[in-house]
């Protein structure tokens, strides 16, 4: 794969709304450890991607501004989103997620290779509570909390159309619930517990829990393609999105 263009979010940026938020996220340098790690990874690279120009910056959300369904992950992968500049693109977790979205009828193609591969999401946006690739895929609680305002702003911008959210994994769940509260949704106390298949109603917003699409889960069978498709299909129907049979 040849070197990617410098910015996968090219074109004219609006002065407000999600495109503007995405630009601001991509310029963030708030967490020194994450800045150092993402940039070092982009310099050193993985041998398989030696001819790539890594993105090496925070990775904004991906999907339409009028999404009815939001998928919340954990953070970009060092040689996935940190390389390609697009959420869940270029790594095995993304392979699993986008194939399932395609199977359910929510994506234009089953693969996500680079930011200009033609992939479109139908009524779905994908984001994360931490926008920089963290060492060992483990952001610190401080880094999670520092990044939270970006998710809060994204939720506020999506609120007019948003009807359902799928949160992948316990980390994302713990990070997302405070963001929902700050964005204006009423989150009960004690907060809803994470579980695969969990389903809660927050002020008209359907919240779903799903095991993360990490290799640890998918390789061991803890999360199967059928399990993932079931959650996505149920969430899409809650959001009143058309799905494949």
What this model shows, in words?
A five-stranded mixed β-sheet has the order 2-1-3-5-4, with helices on both faces. Helix 4 (92-104) packs across helix 8 and helix 5 (141-158) packs across helix 6. 37% of the residues lie in helices and 9% in strands. It is α/β, with parallel strands linked by helices and 245 residues long. It has eight helices and five strands; from the N terminus they run ααβααβαβαββαα. The chain has helices at 18-26, 32-44, 81-84, 92-104, 141-158, 170-182, 215-220, 225-238, and strands spanning 69-72, 124-127, 164-168, 199-202, 205-210.
| Order of strands, widest sheet | 2-1-3-5-4
Percent of residues in helices comes to 25-40%
Molecular shape:
globular
**Largest sheet features:** 5 strands, mixed
The first-to-last residue Cα distance is 34 Å
Radius of gyration: 17 Å
Kindly report the average pLDDT value: 93
Order of helices and strands: HHEHHEHEHEEHH
Segments where pLDDT lies below 50 for 5+ residues? 1-15
By helix and strand content, what is the structural category? alpha/beta
Strand percentage lies at 5-15%
Topology, number of strands: 5
Give me the number of helical elements. 8
Family: Belongs to the uracil-DNA glycosylase (UDG) superfamily. Type 5 (UDGb) family.
Keywords: 4Fe-4S, DNA damage, DNA repair, Hydrolase, Iron, Iron-sulfur, Metal-binding
InterPro entries: UDG_Type-4/5 (IPR051536), UdgB-like (IPR044147), Uracil-DNA_glycosylase-like (IPR005122), Uracil-DNA_glycosylase-like_sf (IPR036895)
Domain Uracil-DNA glycosylase-like: 60-232
């Amino acid at each position: 794969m040849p070197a990617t263009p410098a910015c996968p979010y090219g074109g004219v940026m609006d002065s407000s709304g999600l495109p503007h938020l995405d630009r601001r996220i991509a310029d963030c340098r708030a967490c020194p450890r994450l800045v150092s790690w993402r940039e070092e990874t982009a310099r050193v690279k993985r041998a398989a991607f030696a001819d790539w120009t890594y993105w090496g910056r925070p990775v904004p959300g991906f999907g339409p501004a009028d999404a009815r369904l939001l998928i919340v992950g954990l953070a970009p992968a060092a040689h996935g989103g940190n390389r390609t500049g697009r959420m869940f693109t270029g790594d095995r977790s993304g392979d699993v997620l986008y194939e399932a979205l395609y199977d359910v009828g929510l994506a234009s193609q089953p693969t996500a290779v680079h930011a200009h591969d033609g992939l479109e999401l139908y009524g779905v946006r994908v984001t994360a509570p931490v926008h920089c690739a963290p060492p060992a895929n483990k952001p610190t609680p401080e880094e999670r909390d520092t990044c939270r305002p970006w998710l809060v702003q994204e939720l506020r911008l999506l609120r007019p159309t948003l009807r359902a959210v799928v949160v992948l994994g316990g980390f994302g769940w713990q990070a997302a619930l405070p963001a929902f509260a700050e964005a204006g949704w009423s989150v009960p106390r004690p907060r809803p517990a994470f579980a695969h298949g969990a389903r809660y109603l927050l002020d008209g917003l359907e919240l779903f829990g799903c095991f993360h699409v990490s290799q640890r889960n998918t390789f061991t069978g803890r999360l199967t393609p059928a399990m993932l498709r079931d959650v996505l299909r149920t969430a899409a129907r809650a959001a009143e999105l058309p799905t494949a049979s």
